[in-house]
Structure formats: C-alpha cells, structure tokens
From TrEMBL:
This is SAC3/GANP/THP3 conserved domain-containing protein. PANTHER family: 80 KDA MCM3-ASSOCIATED PROTEIN (PTHR12436), LEUKOCYTE RECEPTOR CLUSTER MEMBER 8 (PTHR12436:SF4). Residues 145-354 form the SAC3/GANP/THP3 conserved domain. GO terms for cellular component: nucleus.
Length: 383
C-alpha cells in the first residue's frame, strides 16, 4: 500500500493580541509613507520655483546687458539725477501761487484773523473787524475770516438800516435775504449776541414771513429763542410776545400737534396780547368753532395774517362740511360770508359753487349741496 504524503503545515491564525500589534505597525508605516510623499512633493515645487527665478534673473541680466550696450544719447538718465527744466519750474511756481493769500499783502505778511486777534489781544478775548463796507453778498466761509473782511457792530447797524430802507422801496427778497445773512455771519464770527443780534434776526424773520420763506423764518425763530434764553430780557430785549404768537400760528398751520404742544410749553407765565390772540385762534381751530376762528383771523395783529393765510382754505372747507352735516333746508349766503371771512356774498357764492354747492335765490340749498360736495371731493381725490 502506497504511503500518503503528509499534508502541508498551515500557519496558525494569529491571536487577538498579535493582530492588534500588526494593525498598529501598519498604521505607523502609512503615516511615515504619507509624510515622505508630502516632503517629496514640496521639494519638487521648491526646485521648480528656484529654476523659474533663475531663468528670470538670467533674462533680466541679458536685457540689462543689451540696455548698457546702447549708445549714450539714446539712454535716458536716472530720474533722481534729472534737473527741472524751465517749463517744469514755471509749472511749480504756478502751483505754489494757488495757495497764496488773495489780494496784495504788505511786505508779504499774512492777514490777521479774528481768531488770532482774540488769542493775542488784551480785551478779554474780544476782537472786531475793520471793514467799512455796508453791502456784502453772503458767501459761505472756507477759511478763517481776516479782520479786514469783517464789519464791526457799528458798521453792521448801518448795514441793517440800509437793508430795511431798500426793502421798503423795492421789496427785493433775494437781495434783502443775502444781505441779512451776511450781517448774521459777521455777527456770528465776532460772537455778538446782544441787542443788535436780536434786531437783525427779528428783521430777517419778518421779511421771510412776508415772503413765505418758512425755512429761513424757522432758522431765525430758533436763533431768537437761543438769544432770549442766553440772558435776561433787559439785557437781550426783543418782541418775544410777537414771535411766540407766530410760532403758535405756524404750528397750527402745519397741523403738527407735537410742535404746537412744544410752542405752548415754551411760553412765559405772563402772556402778551399777541400770544393770547394766537392761543384763542388755535383753540377755536382745534375745537371746530369756525365763527370764532374767522373772527380771530380777521383781527390778527401785525404779521399774523401771513401765518393764517395758508390755513383759511382748509378751515372754510371744514366749516362747509360741518354746515352741510348740521343744517337742513337753506342758509343765506350772506350769513355764511360773514361767518367765514369772505368779502361779500358774491365771493362766498363763487367759492361755494367751486366746492359743488347749489345756490338758489342767494341761499345755500343743503340737500343737493351735500351730493355736489361729495362729487367734488371724489373728483379731487381721483385727480
């Protein structure tokens, strides 16, 4: 019987502890291999960059050699060694002249400014200008004003009287506003805040009110308040009652309840006649008492009618709506004209027809006028 060959001896399976050691060894080999590959790639990139730098340096050296081989006249001298020619010197002198002071200066001495005079003076830091020019157009300041460009208070008083006289002659608001703003500018740079400043701001505010320049009026009104609050009424006099009334009426015209409340809070305890009139007018308007409102508007003092002119139309429309809602039958147009401040029943009738009302036998017919009023309002809202 043939003898069988012995079976191949297979290696025994590693135990669990040996398998763990194999895995740890394999992980370290992978880490070493990865680090080696990264180092090799970095070395390759560095070598290629160094090669590129070397090629660039060689090309630059070759180009420099060609440039050095050029003839002398063709080569341009270095900029640092170039001397400015006559044309360049002329341009430099022209640029330097732009920063020289305007006008001739004796012995090239800089003009003394108000700030310099206040800092170096001995009159408690007070300095005034020396200009005697009565008229000067308003321009915004772009530098410190010189003494020779600013008018002292004595000259500004004459300028104010000149502006007032010309306003009475021609009523040229553009001229008057520009002159008054230049006077205000001279007052500001000289820190003048007494009687003259109050008169200037009051004059400008009144002229602006007559010309319906509300923005300028508000600026002057706010400046007047600051002047009044900066000292006692005896030291800084002015028509506080008049301008307090204007502030109330303009707040009423604007329909701004918060602004009106602020004007009322700023009133003094003792109210003057103009302020009391403005309060009666505002209360009548807010309460819808149109008869009392138009009576107060007809008796408005001084420049108060200029404030109320812009609210008469709205007040009449609201009064007409109240009449159409409250009454029935007919109402005499003459009676409505007297209530609502019209100059006669014909003017009232024209205005009522423009609002869609129906007039028969000099009377407002209520029922058809209601329909015409609604149609006119709808057409107005549609536009």
């Amino acid at each position: 019987m043939k003898k069988r060959a012995p079976a191949a001896v297979l290696p025994a399976a590693p135990s669990a502890s040996k398998a763990g050691r194999y895995d740890a060894l394999w992980g370290r080999l992978e880490t070493v291999n990865k680090s080696f590959l990264e180092t090799a790639a970095l070395a390759e990139r560095t070598a290629s960059e160094q090669t590129a730098v070397a090629k660039t340096a060689a090309a630059y050296k070759a180009l420099q050699g060609k440039f050095d081989a050029l003839p002398g006249p063709t080569r341009r001298p270095a900029l640092s060694a170039a001397a400015p020619d006559a044309e360049e010197l002329a341009r430099r002198r022209e640029r330097a002249a732009r920063f020289e002071p305007l006008g001739p200066q004796p012995d090239d001495a800089p003009a003394q400014t108000l700030v310099g005079a206040r800092e170096g003076g001995s009159k408690c830091g007070v300095a005034y200008g020396t200009s005697s020019q009565l008229e000067r157009e308003y321009l915004r300041l772009t530098r410190l004003p010189a003494l020779s460009e600013v008018r002292p208070p004595a000259v500004l008083e004459q300028s104010l009287e000149l502006v007032k006289s010309k306003w009475l002659e021609s009523a040229d608001y553009a001229y008057a506003s520009s002159q008054l703003k230049s006077i205000r500018q001279d007052l500001t740079v000289q820190h003048v805040s007494g009687r003259l400043a109050v008169r200037v701001y009051e004059t400008h505010a009144r002229i602006a009110l007559e010309s319906s320049d509300w923005a300028e009026f508000k600026q002057c009104h706010a400046s007047l308040r600051r002047l009044w609050e900066s000292g006692a009424p005896e030291a800084v006099p002015g028509s506080r009652d008049e301008f307090a009334a204007y502030g109330i009426l303009l707040a009423l015209v604007a329909g701004d309840g918060a602004l009106l409340a602020g004007e009322l809070r700023g009133l003094a305890r003792e109210l003057g006649p103009m302020t009391r009139h403005a309060l009666r007018t505002a209360l009548a308007f807010r309460a819808g008492d149109w008869v009392a409102f138009f009576r107060a508007a007809a008796a408005a003092p001084r420049l108060a009618p200029y404030c109320l002119d812009h609210t008469l139309e709205a007040a009449r429309e609201r009064a007409l709506h109240a009449a159409l809602v409250s009454y029935g039958g007919t109402l005499p147009v003459a009676q409505l004209a007297a209530w609502w401040g019209f100059q006669g029943h014909k003017a009232a009738a024209r205005w009522l027809r423009g609002k869609g009302a129906v007039i028969e036998h000099k009377c407002l017919v209520i029922k058809p006028s209601r329909e015409g009023w609604r149609a006119a309002r709808a057409a107005k809202d549609g536009d």
